[in-house]
């Protein structure tokens, strides 16, 4: 029993560290990849590739070739449509209209929505004072981070904000649904079907909205290609897998705490590789966020 608890604790720590670090770099990779790929097609390629890798692994390496039941596929389809299609595609689209500071500020509200909605629906216990302090503090910290990087947008900024809120709604709804509909299917196989299903849907959406007409594979730069590979292997295979595992095995506020940590990583990576500047407000906001994440994760009121 002690071994099982220690193993779960080790996996939890690994997934938290992996999720914080991999998804913190995703925004920069998306920025570089969008220089050559249209947004919905980029999401399609990313998730179809990651899903195919998972399914090839489970079918041919693990020899698990049992297809999902009707009930399991219903869960897979709804989760993939809400989290990958709505959550992923609309996030990419919003990046065409608003800058990263605005995106970081609005995305910082995800933990608040997740915890409050889960509590109101009776899926989680009432958040403790420690969690509330961490959630509010994290949101304020992300706000400071957004101010330091600049909250601006062009003439279509309102459209960008609307698409981003649609993305958040899809991600929150899909995450809560997936956490409640945890099946006995192998996690990697379930993730493979989720990603492949969402990727195929976005592939056809990309065609319908005319993205293919302006895309030429010969014009894809090496930077965009490598960024897409990073999104596939680290953003989806590592990051998404760790997020779903945390959803299944930890309280909601721990799984969703990545939304506060990833802007800190994104700022550091942006400064190192994206030519972005860091000022005293940025440093103070990052410190505020780190303390807030500590308050969220240290909470012991809710049992795992």
UniProtKB/TrEMBL annotation:
Membrane topology: Multi-pass membrane protein
Record-annotated EamA domain positions: 13-143, 159-297
Membrane-spanning ranges: 40-61, 73-97, 103-122, 129-151, 157-178, 190-209, 229-248, 255-274, 280-297
Keywords (A to Z) from UniProt: Membrane, Transmembrane, Transmembrane helix
Record flagged with keyword Transmembrane: yes
PANTHER family in UniProt: EAMA DOMAIN-CONTAINING PROTEIN, INNER MEMBRANE TRANSPORTER
Short name of any one Pfam family annotated for the protein: EamA
Domain of life the protein comes from: Bacteria
SUPFAM superfamilies the UniProt entry points to: Multidrug resistance efflux transporter EmrE
Organism per entry: Candidatus Mucispirillum faecigallinarum
GO terms for cellular component: membrane
InterPro entries given in the database record: AA-Vitamin_Transporters, EamA_dom, EmrE-like
Name used for this protein in its record: EamA family transporter
């Amino acid at each position: 029993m002690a071994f099982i608890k220690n193993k779960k604790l080790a996996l939890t720590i690994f997934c938290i560290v992996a999720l914080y670090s991999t998804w913190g770099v995703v925004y920069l990779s998306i920025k570089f990849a969008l220089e050559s790929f249209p947004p919905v097609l980029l999401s399609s390629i990313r998730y179809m590739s990651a899903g195919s890798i998972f399914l090839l692994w489970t079918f041919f390496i693990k020899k698990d070739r049992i297809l999902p039941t009707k009930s399991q596929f219903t869960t897979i389809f709804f989760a993939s449509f809400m989290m990958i299609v709505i959550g992923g595609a609309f996030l990419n689209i919003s990046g065409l209209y608003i800058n990263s500071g605005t995106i970081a500020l609005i995305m910082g509200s995800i933990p608040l929505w997740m915890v409050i909605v889960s509590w109101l629906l009776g899926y989680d216990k009432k958040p403790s004072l420690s969690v509330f302090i961490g959630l509010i503090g994290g949101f304020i910290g992300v706000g400071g981070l957004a101010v330091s990087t600049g909250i601006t947008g062009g003439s279509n900024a309102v459209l960008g904000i609307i698409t981003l809120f649609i993305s958040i709604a899809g991600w929150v709804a899909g995450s809560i649904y997936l956490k409640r509909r945890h099946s006995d299917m192998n996690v990697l196989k379930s993730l493979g079907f989720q990603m492949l299903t969402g990727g195929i849907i976005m592939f056809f959406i990309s065609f319908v909205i005319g993205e293919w007409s302006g895309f030429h594979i010969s014009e894809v730069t090496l930077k965009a290609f490598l960024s897409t590979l990073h999104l596939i292997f680290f953003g989806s295979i590592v990051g998404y897998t760790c997020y779903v595992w945390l959803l299944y095995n930890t309280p909601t506020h721990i799984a969703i705490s990545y939304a506060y940590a990833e802007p800190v990583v994104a700022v550091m990576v942006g400064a190192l590789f994206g030519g972005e500047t860091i000022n005293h407000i940025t440093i103070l906001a990052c410190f505020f966020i780190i303390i807030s994440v500590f308050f969220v994760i240290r909470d012991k009121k809710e049992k795992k």
